[in-house]
What we know:
Helix content: 25-40%
Radius of gyration: 20 Å
Strand content: 15-25%
Amino acid sequence: MTLPKLHVAVLMGGWSNERPVSLMSGEGVAEALESKGHKVTRIDMGRDVALKLAEAKPDVVFNALHGTPGEDGTVQGMMDLMGLTYTHSGLATSVVAIDKELTKQALVPHGVPMPGGRIVETAELYERDPLPRPYVLKPVNEGSSVGVAIVTDAGNYGNPIARDAKGPWQEFDRLLAEPFIRGLELTTAVLGDKALLVTELRPKSGFYDFESKYTDGMTDHICPAEIPDEIAEACKAIALQAHRLLGCRGTSRSDFRWDDERGVEGLFLLEVNTQPGMTALSLVPEQARHLGMDYPDLVEAIIAEALADAKARGGEGAE
Protein backbone atom coordinates (compact mmCIF):
# COMPACT_ATOMS: atom_id res chain seq x y z
CA MET A 1 0.00 0.00 0.00
CA THR A 2 1.52 3.31 -1.15
CA LEU A 3 0.69 6.04 1.33
CA PRO A 4 -0.49 9.47 0.21
CA LYS A 5 0.89 12.43 2.13
CA LEU A 6 -0.95 12.40 5.46
CA HIS A 7 -1.45 14.48 8.55
CA VAL A 8 -0.39 12.19 11.40
CA ALA A 9 -0.83 12.95 15.09
CA VAL A 10 1.87 11.14 17.07
CA LEU A 11 0.61 10.41 20.57
CA MET A 12 3.43 10.02 23.08
CA GLY A 13 4.50 10.60 26.66
CA GLY A 14 1.65 10.18 29.11
CA TRP A 15 2.20 9.51 32.79
CA SER A 16 2.99 5.80 33.09
CA ASN A 17 6.33 4.45 34.30
CA GLU A 18 7.23 4.09 30.63
CA ARG A 19 6.85 7.80 29.80
CA PRO A 20 10.56 8.33 28.91
CA VAL A 21 10.48 5.39 26.50
CA SER A 22 7.26 6.62 24.91
CA LEU A 23 8.75 10.06 24.32
CA MET A 24 11.74 8.48 22.57
CA SER A 25 9.47 6.23 20.51
CA GLY A 26 7.20 9.11 19.56
CA GLU A 27 10.00 11.43 18.51
CA GLY A 28 11.56 8.70 16.40
CA VAL A 29 8.23 8.05 14.67
CA ALA A 30 7.61 11.76 14.12
CA GLU A 31 11.02 12.31 12.55
CA ALA A 32 10.59 9.25 10.32
CA LEU A 33 7.21 10.49 9.09
CA GLU A 34 8.57 13.97 8.39
CA SER A 35 11.41 12.41 6.39
CA LYS A 36 8.73 10.81 4.21
CA GLY A 37 6.99 14.13 3.63
CA HIS A 38 4.05 13.71 6.01
CA LYS A 39 2.69 16.47 8.21
CA VAL A 40 3.17 15.61 11.88
CA THR A 41 1.52 16.95 15.02
CA ARG A 42 3.31 15.82 18.17
CA ILE A 43 1.01 15.38 21.19
CA ASP A 44 2.45 14.78 24.64
CA MET A 45 -0.58 13.21 26.25
CA GLY A 46 -2.16 15.02 29.17
CA ARG A 47 -5.69 15.07 30.54
CA ASP A 48 -6.64 17.35 27.64
CA VAL A 49 -5.65 14.79 25.00
CA ALA A 50 -9.14 14.59 23.47
CA LEU A 51 -9.20 18.36 22.96
CA LYS A 52 -5.75 18.32 21.35
CA LEU A 53 -6.75 15.52 18.98
CA ALA A 54 -10.00 17.28 18.08
CA GLU A 55 -8.10 20.48 17.30
CA ALA A 56 -5.46 18.65 15.23
CA LYS A 57 -7.99 16.77 13.04
CA PRO A 58 -5.39 14.22 11.86
CA ASP A 59 -5.92 11.67 9.11
CA VAL A 60 -4.56 9.02 11.44
CA VAL A 61 -3.10 8.81 14.96
CA PHE A 62 0.15 6.94 15.55
CA ASN A 63 -0.18 5.65 19.10
CA ALA A 64 3.35 5.66 20.53
CA LEU A 65 2.19 5.43 24.15
CA HIS A 66 3.43 2.65 26.42
CA GLY A 67 1.76 1.40 29.60
CA THR A 68 -1.42 2.82 31.09
CA PRO A 69 -3.58 4.62 30.00
CA GLY A 70 -2.23 4.46 26.44
CA GLU A 71 -1.87 0.70 26.10
CA ASP A 72 -4.68 -0.64 28.30
CA GLY A 73 -7.72 0.32 26.22
CA THR A 74 -8.40 3.69 27.85
CA VAL A 75 -7.04 5.85 25.03
CA GLN A 76 -8.29 3.36 22.46
CA GLY A 77 -11.84 3.71 23.78
CA MET A 78 -11.59 7.49 23.69
CA MET A 79 -10.37 7.46 20.09
CA ASP A 80 -13.10 5.00 19.15
CA LEU A 81 -15.71 7.43 20.50
CA MET A 82 -14.09 10.25 18.54
CA GLY A 83 -14.15 8.20 15.33
CA LEU A 84 -10.38 8.43 14.87
CA THR A 85 -8.27 5.99 12.92
CA TYR A 86 -5.29 4.90 15.00
CA THR A 87 -2.40 2.45 14.86
CA HIS A 88 -1.90 -0.72 16.84
CA SER A 89 -4.50 -2.76 18.67
CA GLY A 90 -8.01 -1.67 19.57
CA LEU A 91 -9.88 -1.47 22.84
CA ALA A 92 -10.77 -5.11 23.55
CA THR A 93 -7.34 -6.46 22.61
CA SER A 94 -5.57 -3.81 24.66
CA VAL A 95 -7.64 -4.54 27.77
CA VAL A 96 -6.74 -8.22 27.64
CA ALA A 97 -3.10 -8.02 26.55
CA ILE A 98 -2.02 -5.48 29.21
CA ASP A 99 -3.30 -7.85 31.90
CA LYS A 100 -1.05 -10.90 32.27
CA GLU A 101 -3.77 -12.95 33.98
CA LEU A 102 -6.36 -12.21 31.26
CA THR A 103 -3.76 -12.96 28.59
CA LYS A 104 -3.21 -16.43 30.04
CA GLN A 105 -6.95 -17.03 30.18
CA ALA A 106 -7.20 -16.09 26.50
CA LEU A 107 -4.20 -18.05 25.21
CA VAL A 108 -3.55 -21.14 27.36
CA PRO A 109 -6.84 -22.90 26.45
CA HIS A 110 -5.69 -22.73 22.80
CA GLY A 111 -2.47 -24.55 23.57
CA VAL A 112 -0.13 -21.59 23.92
CA PRO A 113 2.59 -22.61 26.42
CA MET A 114 2.83 -20.12 29.28
CA PRO A 115 4.27 -20.48 32.80
CA GLY A 116 2.01 -21.58 35.62
CA GLY A 117 1.64 -19.51 38.77
CA ARG A 118 -1.04 -17.45 40.42
CA ILE A 119 -2.07 -13.99 41.54
CA VAL A 120 -1.04 -13.21 45.12
CA GLU A 121 -1.96 -10.46 47.53
CA THR A 122 1.14 -8.52 48.51
CA ALA A 123 0.50 -9.04 52.23
CA GLU A 124 0.82 -12.80 51.71
CA LEU A 125 4.46 -12.40 50.65
CA TYR A 126 5.43 -11.21 54.12
CA GLU A 127 4.16 -14.47 55.63
CA ARG A 128 5.20 -17.17 53.16
CA ASP A 129 6.44 -17.80 49.64
CA PRO A 130 3.58 -18.30 47.16
CA LEU A 131 5.72 -20.74 45.11
CA PRO A 132 8.89 -22.74 45.68
CA ARG A 133 12.00 -20.62 45.11
CA PRO A 134 13.23 -19.51 42.63
CA TYR A 135 10.15 -17.70 41.35
CA VAL A 136 9.32 -14.41 39.64
CA LEU A 137 7.04 -11.64 40.92
CA LYS A 138 5.69 -9.08 38.47
CA PRO A 139 2.84 -6.54 38.32
CA VAL A 140 -0.27 -7.85 36.61
CA ASN A 141 -0.55 -4.92 34.18
CA GLU A 142 2.81 -3.23 33.61
CA GLY A 143 5.22 -3.68 30.71
CA SER A 144 8.95 -3.22 29.97
CA SER A 145 9.85 -5.41 32.97
CA VAL A 146 8.69 -2.64 35.30
CA GLY A 147 8.60 -3.93 38.87
CA VAL A 148 9.88 -7.45 38.17
CA ALA A 149 11.72 -9.32 40.95
CA ILE A 150 13.35 -12.75 40.87
CA VAL A 151 13.14 -14.31 44.33
CA THR A 152 15.87 -16.86 45.06
CA ASP A 153 17.27 -18.55 48.16
CA ALA A 154 20.45 -16.52 47.74
CA GLY A 155 18.64 -13.21 47.20
CA ASN A 156 18.56 -10.35 49.67
CA TYR A 157 14.79 -9.94 49.96
CA GLY A 158 14.56 -12.10 53.09
CA ASN A 159 12.73 -15.34 53.75
CA PRO A 160 9.86 -14.65 53.87
CA ILE A 161 10.14 -11.35 51.99
CA ALA A 162 10.77 -8.46 54.38
CA ARG A 163 8.38 -5.51 54.31
CA ASP A 164 11.27 -3.06 54.04
CA ALA A 165 12.97 -4.93 51.16
CA LYS A 166 12.86 -2.91 47.95
CA GLY A 167 10.66 -4.56 45.34
CA PRO A 168 7.33 -4.49 43.50
CA TRP A 169 5.47 -5.47 46.68
CA GLN A 170 6.05 -1.90 47.90
CA GLU A 171 4.19 -0.48 44.87
CA PHE A 172 1.44 -2.97 44.01
CA ASP A 173 -1.30 -4.61 46.08
CA ARG A 174 -1.47 -7.68 43.82
CA LEU A 175 1.30 -9.43 41.91
CA LEU A 176 1.64 -12.36 39.55
CA ALA A 177 3.89 -15.12 40.87
CA GLU A 178 5.38 -17.49 38.28
CA PRO A 179 8.03 -20.21 38.43
CA PHE A 180 11.44 -18.93 37.31
CA ILE A 181 12.44 -20.46 33.99
CA ARG A 182 16.19 -20.83 33.55
CA GLY A 183 17.74 -20.35 30.14
CA LEU A 184 17.50 -17.76 27.39
CA GLU A 185 15.44 -14.58 26.92
CA LEU A 186 13.94 -14.53 23.41
CA THR A 187 11.58 -12.18 21.63
CA THR A 188 9.70 -12.27 18.32
CA ALA A 189 8.01 -9.40 16.53
CA VAL A 190 4.88 -9.70 14.37
CA LEU A 191 4.15 -7.12 11.69
CA GLY A 192 0.77 -7.35 10.00
CA ASP A 193 0.26 -11.08 9.59
CA LYS A 194 3.90 -12.18 9.54
CA ALA A 195 6.29 -13.12 12.31
CA LEU A 196 9.67 -11.48 11.70
CA LEU A 197 12.71 -12.92 13.51
CA VAL A 198 13.80 -14.19 16.91
CA THR A 199 16.22 -12.09 18.96
CA GLU A 200 18.12 -13.37 21.99
CA LEU A 201 18.62 -10.77 24.71
CA ARG A 202 21.76 -11.10 26.80
CA PRO A 203 21.88 -8.54 29.62
CA LYS A 204 25.45 -7.90 30.74
CA SER A 205 24.44 -7.95 34.41
CA GLY A 206 21.37 -9.13 36.30
CA PHE A 207 18.34 -9.81 34.10
CA TYR A 208 16.55 -8.02 31.27
CA ASP A 209 14.91 -5.34 33.39
CA PHE A 210 13.74 -1.81 32.50
CA GLU A 211 17.25 -0.35 32.80
CA SER A 212 18.80 -3.10 30.68
CA LYS A 213 16.17 -2.63 27.99
CA TYR A 214 16.65 1.09 27.50
CA THR A 215 20.28 1.82 28.42
CA ASP A 216 22.66 1.61 25.49
CA GLY A 217 25.33 -1.04 25.96
CA MET A 218 23.69 -2.92 28.85
CA THR A 219 22.19 -5.72 26.74
CA ASP A 220 23.52 -7.57 23.70
CA HIS A 221 20.93 -8.28 21.01
CA ILE A 222 21.70 -11.45 19.06
CA CYS A 223 19.58 -11.09 15.91
CA PRO A 224 18.77 -13.51 14.56
CA ALA A 225 19.16 -15.63 17.69
CA GLU A 226 21.70 -18.46 17.57
CA ILE A 227 19.21 -21.16 18.47
CA PRO A 228 18.03 -24.39 16.81
CA ASP A 229 15.73 -23.92 13.81
CA GLU A 230 12.89 -25.77 15.56
CA ILE A 231 12.99 -23.31 18.47
CA ALA A 232 13.07 -20.28 16.15
CA GLU A 233 10.13 -21.64 14.16
CA ALA A 234 8.24 -22.41 17.38
CA CYS A 235 8.77 -18.86 18.63
CA LYS A 236 7.48 -17.41 15.37
CA ALA A 237 4.49 -19.74 15.25
CA ILE A 238 3.49 -19.01 18.85
CA ALA A 239 3.97 -15.25 18.42
CA LEU A 240 1.75 -15.24 15.33
CA GLN A 241 -0.84 -17.46 17.02
CA ALA A 242 -0.97 -15.15 20.06
CA HIS A 243 -1.18 -12.06 17.82
CA ARG A 244 -4.18 -13.56 16.01
CA LEU A 245 -5.94 -14.98 19.08
CA LEU A 246 -5.74 -11.65 20.90
CA GLY A 247 -6.82 -9.72 17.80
CA CYS A 248 -3.68 -7.58 17.63
CA ARG A 249 -3.32 -5.02 14.85
CA GLY A 250 -0.25 -3.43 13.30
CA THR A 251 2.64 -4.84 15.24
CA SER A 252 3.13 -6.80 18.44
CA ARG A 253 6.08 -8.39 20.20
CA SER A 254 6.01 -11.67 22.09
CA ASP A 255 8.56 -12.34 24.84
CA PHE A 256 9.71 -15.86 25.71
CA ARG A 257 11.91 -17.81 28.09
CA TRP A 258 13.54 -20.95 26.74
CA ASP A 259 15.07 -23.63 28.94
CA ASP A 260 17.64 -24.92 26.46
CA GLU A 261 18.01 -28.18 28.40
CA ARG A 262 14.43 -29.18 27.60
CA GLY A 263 14.14 -28.58 23.86
CA VAL A 264 10.84 -27.24 22.53
CA GLU A 265 9.11 -28.36 25.75
CA GLY A 266 11.13 -25.71 27.57
CA LEU A 267 9.75 -22.78 25.53
CA PHE A 268 7.25 -20.51 27.29
CA LEU A 269 5.51 -17.31 26.20
CA LEU A 270 5.70 -14.68 28.94
CA GLU A 271 3.64 -11.83 27.49
CA VAL A 272 2.46 -10.07 24.34
CA ASN A 273 3.24 -6.37 23.92
CA THR A 274 0.62 -4.67 21.74
CA GLN A 275 2.57 -1.40 21.45
CA PRO A 276 6.23 -2.38 21.42
CA GLY A 277 8.90 0.29 21.65
CA MET A 278 10.04 2.23 18.59
CA THR A 279 13.25 3.69 20.05
CA ALA A 280 16.75 3.34 18.60
CA LEU A 281 17.29 0.34 20.90
CA SER A 282 13.88 -1.24 20.30
CA LEU A 283 13.50 -4.76 19.03
CA VAL A 284 10.79 -4.44 16.37
CA PRO A 285 12.74 -1.87 14.31
CA GLU A 286 15.87 -3.99 14.72
CA GLN A 287 14.20 -7.13 13.40
CA ALA A 288 12.59 -5.23 10.53
CA ARG A 289 15.98 -3.75 9.61
CA HIS A 290 17.54 -7.23 9.46
CA LEU A 291 14.84 -8.15 6.94
CA GLY A 292 15.57 -5.12 4.77
CA MET A 293 12.90 -2.70 6.02
CA ASP A 294 14.26 0.61 7.27
CA TYR A 295 12.71 2.57 10.13
CA PRO A 296 10.63 5.08 8.08
CA ASP A 297 9.23 2.24 5.95
CA LEU A 298 8.31 0.32 9.12
CA VAL A 299 6.44 3.34 10.48
CA GLU A 300 4.57 3.74 7.20
CA ALA A 301 3.74 0.01 7.14
CA ILE A 302 2.13 0.27 10.59
CA ILE A 303 0.10 3.28 9.46
CA ALA A 304 -0.88 1.57 6.20
CA GLU A 305 -2.34 -1.36 8.13
CA ALA A 306 -4.33 0.98 10.38
CA LEU A 307 -5.80 2.73 7.34
CA ALA A 308 -6.58 -0.55 5.57
CA ASP A 309 -8.20 -1.95 8.70
CA ALA A 310 -10.35 1.16 9.14
CA LYS A 311 -11.42 0.98 5.51
CA ALA A 312 -12.34 -2.70 5.85
CA ARG A 313 -14.56 -1.80 8.81
CA GLY A 314 -16.41 0.89 6.92
CA GLY A 315 -14.10 3.82 7.48
CA GLU A 316 -14.48 3.93 11.24
CA GLY A 317 -11.46 4.21 13.48
CA ALA A 318 -13.14 2.16 16.17
CA GLU A 319 -13.11 -1.49 16.99
